Amino acid sequence: MTALTKLTNRFTEADIDSEIVIMRLDNGEFFSLSGTSAATWRLIDGSRNRDNVLAALTDQFEGAGREIDRDLDAFLRELRETGLLAE
Amino acid sequence: MSAHKSAAEATIEREMRVMYGDAPKTLSDQPLGEMCWQMLGDSFLLRGEGHHYFHYRKGEGITVDRGPNADLSEESLWLDGSVYAAVASINGLLPIHASAVAHNGLVFAFTGPAGAGKSTLVAALGKLGLPMFCDDTLVLDLSDPDRIFCLPGHKRLKLRPDAVRLVGTTPLEAVSKSVDKVYASPSGGDVSHPLPLGELVFLETGVQPVVEPIIGAERFVRTEDNHQNAWLFTGARRLDPPAQFAHRARLAQQIRMARFCRPMDHARFQEGVALAAQYVRNGAQQ
Known about the structure:
Shape of chain A: globular
Radius of gyration of chain A: 13 Å
Low-confidence stretches of chain B: none
CATH architecture of the largest domain in chain B: 3-Layer(aba) Sandwich
Strand order of the largest sheet of chain A: 1-2-3
Number of domains of chain B: 2
Helix content of chain B: 25-40%
Number of domains of chain A: 1
Structural class of chain A: alpha+beta
Low-confidence stretches of chain A: none
Shape of chain B: globular
CATH architecture of chain A: Orthogonal Bundle
Helix content of chain A: 40-55%
CATH topology of chain A: Arc Repressor Mutant, subunit A
CATH class of chain A: Mainly Alpha
Oligomer: heterodimer
CATH class of the largest domain in chain B: Alpha Beta
């Protein structure tokens, strides 16, 4: 399984408190990430694949249950559709 | 109190020097309408009523051209308002639409749209002993990457007649023929030296008076400013979208923010003022 890679030339980002604000450079659209989505975004560092990210999230969010698996896939799909994550 | 002016104060003082004479009538190939402005590079041109022009070029100061039908009673308002904001912006300072008090070496600024009660609140906080830092425009010095400083206000306190009655202050002279406001003296005195920004508080209406911190990405959202001052800054700095993002992110990261909700009910005005004063005196979110 290949490592998850952000398309860093397509966005700029800033940490504000525990949240993250991202701006797409092609259209100026903003996103904000908090909670598990912010944690997921931080874990995508070019070295972890999907399963590594899931394992780290499961450690961080003990008791989050089975839905974290499903939520991660939905979030990764969204990032790819938005053009922020390599296919 | 510092005996020396900061670099930002010295810049503003130097750049705001006023001369009288001929000014250009446009900075482009289009004529400039009354009550409109243009910005081109380090130059700014404002036209007031009639043929009343205010031209600024960085390093050269301001030239006021009093042509036919110029309304001289408005001149100081133009100079202290849009011209000052443009000069600040061209010189790297950020003017925001806010009135502020000072406490314990920090500035507590209140912002909101016209009519939100910024000046009224600052006047009322003055009655409770908090000195005014500025009225209507707060100029931020961003030159220290680690901390945002505020320049002391350059405008006198202006209040609408109903605000004078609400606050219980003494009205002074009328602001101008066309503006339904009077000048007033801040009861708590004022501050004449730069101070760090302590907190930016957004004035909102609500059922009960309450102050709540604004955290996370909402602070970034709150940096979107549709006031003319923000347009002047963006125009002057010629920021591309990534630079604008970085500018807003810095403000969001470094400025503590809160919302102050209170009913717009004169009978409960003092209740809200007391809460705001307590919030400031407690050091806000410290």
